[in-house]
Amino acid sequence: MYLIKKIFKKIAVFFDFLKFKKLDSDKRFALQRKDFYFQIGDKTAATGFDRHYIYHTAWASRKIKETNPSFHIDIASSLYFCALVSAFVPIKFYDYRTPDLQLPNLEIYKGDLMNLPFSDNEIKSLSCMHVVEHIGLGRYGDPIDPSGDLKAIKELKRVLAKDGNLFFVTPLGKPKIQFNAHRIYSLRMIKEYFSDFKLQELILIPERKGPMILNPAEEQINLETYGCGCFWFLKK
């Protein structure tokens, strides 16, 4: 059935092409069938988007604006986040796989989240978002390690300065590993891992619809299959 729908959508694009060609009187561009580049999934009633990545980067950007650090360290979060926030705060970005991204106020470094290149209590403003759940699953060429996420969290906690801010994002719901994509944590697990930190703010991005929810009840989070939790932690 899916294949049939796909064929019909491509046929519809071909008829759009014929209509466009007929109406194209000024011939400003070359218009040939050999240049077809079919896009068949975009005729929707509303513009779709990745709820996790649009909302969590929007949340984190606002937190950086609110806290206004002199500079910010990010560990392997969304490149969109780092690229945009570097417009108003200098950012040093560390990743296991370094991207070839060149922008003012954005410095790129190679880094291993299980062995960060910082001293204890060094970083005042730190983010690691939608990253820890992947560590140790081998998805990005990192070593297989069932405790990789816990080692990564330990490193984040080690390098954060006293009274420093950590913006941490991870999937929330019923705990499970969807190998080799990611882990999903319960709220109780994350609170336990950061029990020695102060939770300044918790945001839930529901999986299916609706806006971000400030300080949701644990029962609400438990109903999620693949929700997204945005945590603002302060090191005591």
Describe the protein in words.
With 236 residues, the protein is of the alpha/beta class. It has 2 domains: 1-22 and 33-41, no CATH class; 52-235, Vaccinia Virus protein VP39 (Rossmann fold). It contains 6 helices and 10 strands; from the N terminus they run H-H-E-H-E-E-E-H-E-E-E-H-E-E-H-E. Strands 3-2-1-4-5-10-8-9 form an 8-stranded mixed β-sheet. Strands 6-7 form a two-stranded antiparallel ribbon. The longest helix has 22 residues, at 2-23. The mean pLDDT is 96.
Helices and strands in order:
Blueprint: H1 2-23, H2 51-67, E1 72-75, H3 79-85, E2 91-95, E3 106-110, E4 123-129, H4 148-159, E5 160-172, E6 176-178, E7 182-184, H5 187-193, E8 197-205, E9 213-214, H6 218-222, E10 227-235
Parallel strand pairs: 1-2, 1-4, 2-3, 4-5
Antiparallel strand pairs: 5-10, 6-7, 8-9, 8-10
Helix pairs in contact: 2-3
